[in-house]
């Protein structure tokens, strides 16, 4: 009994007219469809849209949904797997390239030795002014800007000279530049004074330990690079001429 009532209810729902009963009596224009011929022995269900009249009012043309067969190709997605794979591949390639080019790499600082020096020896101290060369290489795929250079010079583990310089040195991607820095040093060691002033001593060299910190900006944030070097300076009372410029690093 329950199945019979459900079938009757479903049939009544299908036979319920979507269009108002008097829609065909108005003088509005209609959209006609071609007559369809029924095949022999086939069962049919009355279309709930037009109630078998094969026509609907033209003013309701944009308000009614057309019936599309379930097996219509328009309802079947085509190349879905290919589209998804291509989208995933493009995202992976884009992400990989972005990480590769924007991944921050440390810059390379290489001291290139002394360019010039001047020495004055007094009874109690030795004054040594040095000018050194520093090569800076940018291994990133974006430019950087050097903003500050801090140098500290030590002799026998004692600080004998300091300097801090503000800079605005721009270095392009995968490029290198060379810069000079000067430090005034004052050594108060008695033995060093004797080494630099006694004529009986043939070698007048003083070992200086140079420590430096380079501050630069990359991708809107500040980074620091620490470097150090050891330089022998002739501390006889003289002035050495500047050396030839060291070629830039490749």
Automatic annotation (TrEMBL):
Keyword annotations from UniProtKB, A to Z: Membrane, Transmembrane, Transmembrane helix
Superkingdom of this protein's organism: Eukaryota
Pfam families, sorted: TMEM106, TMEM106_N
GO cellular component terms, semicolon-separated: endomembrane system
Location of this chain's protein in the cell: Endomembrane system
First-listed, main subcellular location of the protein, grouped into a coarse class: membrane
TM stretches of this protein: 82-103
Domain Transmembrane protein 106 C-terminal: residue ranges: 104-240
Residue span of region Disordered: 1-30
Residue span, Transmembrane protein 106 N-terminal domain: 2-80
Family designation: Belongs to the TMEM106 family.
Protein name (record): Transmembrane protein 106A
Protein's organism: Pipistrellus kuhlii
């Amino acid at each position: 009994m329950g199945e019979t009532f459900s079938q009757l209810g479903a049939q009544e729902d299908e036979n319920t007219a979507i269009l108002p009963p008097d829609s065909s009596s108005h003088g509005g224009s209609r959209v006609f469809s071609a007559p369809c011929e029924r095949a022999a022995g086939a069962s049919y269900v009355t279309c709930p849209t037009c109630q078998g009249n094969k026509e609907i009012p033209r003013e309701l043309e944009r308000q009614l949904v057309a019936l599309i067969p379930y097996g219509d190709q328009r309802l079947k997605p085509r190349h879905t797997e290919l589209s998804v794979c291509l989208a995933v591949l493009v995202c992976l390639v884009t992400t990989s390239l972005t990480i590769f080019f924007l991944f921050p790499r440390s810059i390379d600082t290489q001291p290139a030795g002394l360019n010039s020096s001047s020495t004055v020896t007094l009874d109690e101290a030795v004054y040594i002014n040095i000018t050194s060369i520093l090569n800076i290489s940018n291994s990133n795929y974006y430019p950087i800007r050097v903003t500050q250079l801090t140098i500290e010079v030590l002799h026998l583990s004692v600080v004998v000279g300091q300097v801090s310089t503000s800079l605005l040195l721009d270095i392009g991607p995968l490029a290198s530049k060379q810069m000079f820095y000067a430090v005034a040093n004052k050594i108060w060691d008695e033995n060093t004074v004797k080494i630099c002033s006694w004529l009986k001593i043939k070698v007048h060299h003083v070992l200086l330990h140079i420590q430096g910190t380079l501050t630069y900006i990359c991708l809107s944030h500040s980074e620091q690079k620490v470097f150090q070097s050891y330089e022998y300076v002739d501390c006889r009372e003289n002035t050495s001429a500047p050396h030839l410029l060291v070629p830039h690093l490749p």
